[in-house]
Amino acid sequence: MNTPPSHPSGAVSRRRRWAARLSTLVVAAVAAATLAPQVATAAPTTVFSDDFARNVAGSWGASAAGSYAGYSVPGALSVDGSAAQLNLAPAQSVSVLAGTGSAGDVRADASIRLGQSAGRSYFAFILRYQNDGSAYRGRLELDAAGTPTLAVSRAGGGSDKQLAAVRLAQPLDRGEWYTLSYSVTGTSPVTVRASLTKRGADPATPQLTASDADGSRIEDAGRVGLWAYISSSATKNTELSLDDLAFADGAAPLTIAGGPSPTPTPTTTPTPTPTATPTPTTPPAATPTSTPTTPQPPATGGGSASSGDAGSVDVGRAAYPVPTGAVFVDAHALRSGNGSASSPFTTVQGAIDAAKPGGTIVVRTGVYHEALSIPSNKPLTIQAYPNEAVWFDGSRVVSAWTPSGSVWVSTGWTTSFDSSMRGQASMYVSSDHPTANRPDQLFVDGIALRQVASAAEVVAGTFAVDDAGDRLVLGTNPNGREVRASDISQAIDATAPNITLQGFGVRRYATTFGATAQVRMHNTGAVVRNLVIEDGAFIGLAVQNDDSVIDHVTVRRNGIMGIGVNQAYNLVLSNSLVTDNNAQHFNDIPVAGGIKITRSRNVTVTGNVVSNNDGSGIWFDESCYDVKIVRNTANDNSTSGIQLELSDTAVIAGNTSTGTRTGIQIINTGNVRIYNNELGANADNGIRLRQDARRSATHATGRDPRMGIDSRVPWITRNITIANNVFGSGGRYSIRANDGATNRPVDSWNVVITGNLFNNKAAGGPTMVAWGTGDNRSFEGYQSPAELSAAKNRSWVNAIAASALPLASMASAAASAASTAAPIPADVAALLGVGTTQRFVGVRSR
Question: What is the pTM for the complete model shown?
Answer without folding.
Answer: 0.67
